[in-house]
Design brief:
221 residues, four-stranded antiparallel beta sheet
Length: 221
């Protein structure tokens, strides 16, 4: 599972990152809001730990931007501000949880675990199509090399490989991958299809995903 930590205080960022890595999470670290937004534009995460007060772009602006882009990744806001109005502003902007500083690392980890949705049951054996292999143990996709997948990328790829003989509509994917989660739109599906297209390119696979935004999608060799 992959987490983005966006916190401008370098010591705190480092400590959170080390703690998450110790718990076997893959972690990217950003030190300002602009850097965090760039990460979120190019990759998919299972959770984002986002400080509100950051240089370049504050955390609430980053949060509003990604929600407008239909990125539904769970977000935990960190801030030194503990007033009720600041908590309300964060939740209204689309945050899933809120943790005021200073905080205990045990509480941080408990909140992260609560935010990361459990994966549904998945195949016991690896899935193969063309030159790609989907590892159901560590949720990686490989061809000439390998790349890790977030929960939603993994779930989407399982559905695409398992139904590679037919075209799957955007509506079908919303119902079967996102389970009709509130706020999920065709833009959300297209965003994650784009993530997977990029990762197929990263591993130099001959497999592609056909389809256009709002339409139907299918893996092709």
């Amino acid at each position: 599972m992959k987490i983005l930590v966006a916190e401008d205080t370098r010591d705190l960022n480092r400590n959170i990152t080390l703690l998450l890595q110790h718990e076997k999470y893959v972690v990217d670290s950003a030190f300002d809001g602009i850097e965090a937004l760039e990460y979120l534009k190019t990759d998919s995460y299972d959770c984002v730990i986002l400080d509100i007060m950051m240089p370049g772009m504050d955390g609430l602006s980053v949060l509003r931007e990604i929600r407008q882009r239909h990125v539904m990744t769970p977000v935990l806001l960190l801030t030194a501000k503990a007033e009720v109005e600041d908590r309300v502003a964060g939740l209204d902007a689309g945050a899933d949880d809120y943790l005021p500083k200073p905080f205990a690392f045990k509480e941080l980890m408990a909140r992260v675990r609560a935010l990361i949705r459990r994966l549904p049951s998945h195949p016991e054996t690896n899935l193969v199509m063309g030159d790609i292999k989907l590892d159901t143990e560590n949720h990686s996709l490989s061809a000439t090399n390998s790349v890790g997948l977030s929960n939603k990328e993994y779930e989407l790829m399982v559905v695409l490989i398992s139904n590679s003989d037919i075209q799957l509509s955007t509506k079908y994917l919303i119902e079967h991958v996102w389970k009709s989660e509130e706020g999920t739109q065709e833009d959300t599906v297209w965003l994650y299809i784009s993530y997977l297209k990029r990762k197929l390119s990263m591993i130099n696979s001959a497999v592609t995903i056909s389809g256009t935004k709002g339409g139907s999608f299918q893996l092709q060799v």
